[in-house]
Amino acid sequence: LQVCIIDRAAFDMAMATRAQGRGVEYVLSSLVKNIEVGKDKVKVEAVHQGEKSSFEARMVVIATGFGSGLTERLGLGKVGDFVAGAQAEVETKGVDEIEIYFGQEFAPGFFAWLVPTSASRALVGLAVRRSPGLYFRKLMSSLLAEGKIVSAEVKPRYRGIPLKPLAKTYGDRLIVVGDAAGQVKPTTGGGIYYGLLCADIAASNLHRALETDDLSAKSLANYERGWKSKLGRELGIGYSARRFYERLSDSNLDRIVDIMKSSGIEEALHKTDDLSPDWHGAAMLRLL
């Protein structure tokens, strides 16, 4: 199983450029404050470069990432469960491979990472349910003591990572996609692949809804049925696996790894198509 590092800034830029080539116009430096759904249009109120502005459209797609508050104000609820992530870019010494850290010391219930981005730079991060700053400082101190980073004096960026989907991802003249909808792998917190899958499903349903001029909640419910048909089972299995993992002590986890190695389970998983970076359900059921 090979894992590749994606240059997220370059990836986002490439996606934006493709969208612009299809006629998309961006209004940057704007913070959406409110969305009003009317009978025949949607009004979006924003603050653009310090000035209030508004936009009108036939419908709106909420793809704000986690924690904007818009979905709750629109009556769609909020993501049911999440963890807090902390990450910073650091200067490194001799780090040329991805390193993942498990255990109670640095990331109880989740994991921490050191991901090289160049010969002398890397991303250091972790996700936990509580006190991300505390665990981040402990991780940085350890990496400094091991000589892997040059300095522990960095300021991390924090963000929430959803673990469960939004209860409802559609309404009259609106749908919710990506992290804002909680369309994220509960096992790892990764959201790019699932977000792209759901965006494709959203695009197909929006195309039909716009063609027929039926942007009602009843019509847009097809979007939710579509993405839940594709991902619902996977998300359910992944969340159950996540809750199980969070209850493991370090000794329990070590024991499970030893059993997997000694019984041939690890080797068997590597040989099967069930083991995938994006689809974890089949591998989880195989382990059971």
Automatic annotation (TrEMBL):
InterPro entries on file: FAD/NAD-bd_sf, Geranylgeranyl_reductase
Gene3D superfamilies (UniProt xref): FAD/NAD(P)-binding domain
Coiled coil regions in record: none
PANTHER family reported in the protein's UniProt record: CONDITIONED MEDIUM FACTOR RECEPTOR 1, GERANYLGERANYL DIPHOSPHATE REDUCTASE
Name this polypeptide is given: NAD(P)/FAD-dependent oxidoreductase
